[in-house]
Amino acid sequence: MTQELYSDGIGExxxxxxxxxxxxxxxxxxxxxANNNPKPVFRQRVVMxxxxxxxxxxxxxxxxxxxxxxxxxxRIGDIAAHPAGDAGQQTRGSTNESPNFN
Length: 102
Prior knowledge:
With 102 residues, this protein is α+β, with helices and mostly antiparallel strands. Helix content is 26%, strand content 33%.
């Protein structure tokens, strides 16, 4: 059986010499911030060499470009480029922004 890990995002990326450490985080079910939003908490770390990280970034960029082309997500810069009249037609789920990380 393959083990899977869910992550709400990346908390931090640290480069030390030729090693990259990527801290994965998820939103806590119990801890809240001052605005009563779930706090991001560290879950697991991915450690890889710099060249593997560069390849991973390239692969993720290709995946993102495919999602943009398919209309599944829009880049933040593309949202600002739309006329104000289109703003009322946008739905919250149509962007790749999350209120949890603002």
